């Protein structure tokens, strides 16, 4: 692709079937605009770019101009001719229209990236090198490379060629390990016949008739919210003749409470591990929900077993 020349070529000599069209679709309004210009002043239009392999002229830039010239009634059109193969013409077409002509659409850029990734000249390039050639973002190139690799349309590369022409091993992001659920060790459940605290009626007594929390808080008498009225006796007219107050029955034993605290701690540890590994947000939420569901089911079984005793 070193020798360059200029010549007027008839339309039947210009090949359009070499997969060198850089656009997804043509714009008829642009063709009409170019046709009008060719009719008035054909010399001001830039030449078409073609690649000549010794037998065929492969058009790789100027498709709208080509059709505009024909629509204007011209028999031939001026072309810039480079020596090269059809494959060379394909590769050259991927970087066309970055700074001139009709602006590329998003679909045009996607077409160029995917074709370049499949092309022998671009298959080994790094994302940044290829992005620089195509005039797009390296992140966009990386996105479509991963897409084509996942469907085995292109091979996964072990080396890549940078802008300096040197080959380097391609660094791949390590796959993130999926945190596995580890059941908590079975806690030491307090005996069912442990007496509840006389003050709060919930926690197990540890000293005399009070639990450790009430001892630490200095509570010696039940609050109004902690007691219920029990009717001891009624007379013949159903009037209450004796009543006492006593602590409300405990809702959960100390063992179940400890299991709940341990489970909440485990969920927190798993969530912190997920954050450290930078798991994608949707994946992290799914894992967190899974841990909460496990905790809910296990605590439900523990509470049900306690009530049946």
**How many structural domains are formed by the residues?**
4
Distance between the termini: 89 Å
Enter the CATH topology name of the largest domain: Conserved hypothetical protein from pyrococcus furiosus pfu- 392566-001, ParB domain
Helix content: 25-40%
Give me the strand/helix succession. EEHEEHEHHHHEEHEEHH
CATH superfamily of the largest domain: Conserved hypothetical protein from pyrococcus furiosus pfu- 392566-001, ParB domain
- What's the average pLDDT? 76
CATH architecture descriptor text of the largest domain: Alpha-Beta Complex
Strand order of the largest sheet: 1-5-3-4-2
Uncertain spans, ≥5 residues at pLDDT below 50? 184-193, 225-234, 240-250
| CATH class type of the largest domain | Alpha Beta
How would you concisely characterize the structure shown here?
This protein has helices at 28-40, 63-71, 86-93, 106-118, 127-134, 138-150, 212-217, 254-277, 281-308; strands at residues 4-10, 14-15, 48-52, 57-61, 76-83, 159-161, 167-169, 227-234, 240-247.
Question: Can you put this structure into words, describing what you see?
Answer:
It is a single chain. With 309 residues, the protein is α/β, with parallel strands linked by helices. It folds into four domains: 1-103, Conserved hypothetical protein from pyrococcus furiosus pfu- 392566-001, ParB domain, CATH 3.90.1530.10; 105-172; 195-251, no CATH class; 254-308. The chain contains nine helices and nine strands. The chain has helices spanning 28-40, 63-71, 86-93, 106-118, 127-134, 138-150, 212-217, 254-277, 281-308; strands spanning 4-10, 14-15, 48-52, 57-61, 76-83, 159-161, 167-169, 227-234, 240-247. The strands form three sheets. Strands 1-5-3-4-2 form a five-stranded mixed beta sheet. Helix 8 packs antiparallel against helix 9 (281-308). It is rod-shaped. The chain starts with a strand and ends with a helix. 21% of the residues are buried.
